[in-house]
Design a protein that fits this description.
This protein has about 180 residues and is an all-alpha fold. The protein contains 7 helices and no strands. The radius of gyration is 24 Å and the shape is rod-shaped.
């Protein structure tokens, strides 16, 4: 009788560990998928940027510094950890704001069909990046909760699961600040 109780407890414990492990794996894969979604959208944005810069170059030759900043930030934005990617994304977003502020000063450029299409595609891509970030952060929240909550936390570390970083903006006010462009100088 005691033997059956011990066997029953061991079987229940084994089933719990099996179910916990599978749930952690599923959630971890969801985090990896979400990160992949972010990188796919960022790659799409990086592919659009040279075309956008080329469109602006013809109209805004004396804005070379703004264009150089966009290209520089683009080149440093792929790869790295979540935190590094978030930092470079913030700088790239600021550079793109400057580019669009420059474009506002050129009515012919704003009317250029190629530029308008590229701008529309970039805005669409930015929306997709934001959605991907939200999906990633939701998946990270779920995984981090599982890794920290009892009784899952007992097995999570021993099974190799750890907390992941959220995709965060270091200085939200700076990212949301409008770009100041002054052509009177």
């Amino acid at each position: 009788m005691v033997l059956w109780i011990v066997v029953g407890v061991v079987v229940l414990l084994a089933l719990f560990v099996w179910a916990t492990y599978n749930k952690l794996v599923k959630t971890n894969v969801r985090v990896e998928e979400a990160w992949s979604d972010i990188t796919v959208q960022m790659k799409r944005r990086f592919d659009l940027i040279p075309n956008l810069v080329s469109s602006v170059k013809g109209y805004a030759k004396h804005e070379a510094k703004t264009l150089e900043n966009v290209v520089k930030e683009r080149s440093g934005a792929i790869g790295g950890s979540v935190k590094e990617t978030a930092e470079t994304e913030n700088m790239l977003s600021g550079a793109l704001k400057s580019l669009f502020a420059v474009a506002e000063s050129y009515p012919d450029l704003k009317a250029n069909q190629n530029f308008l299409q590229l701008q529309e595609e970039l805005v669409d891509t930015e929306d997709k990046i934001q959605a991907s970030r939200r999906f990633y952060n939701g998946a990270v929240r779920t995984l981090n909760t599982m890794v920290q909550m009892f009784p899952t936390n007992i097995f999570a570390k021993s099974l190799g699961f750890t907390k992941k970083e959220f995709f965060e903006v270091d200085n939200q006010a700076e990212v949301e600040k409008a770009v100041d462009v002054n052509f009177d100088k």
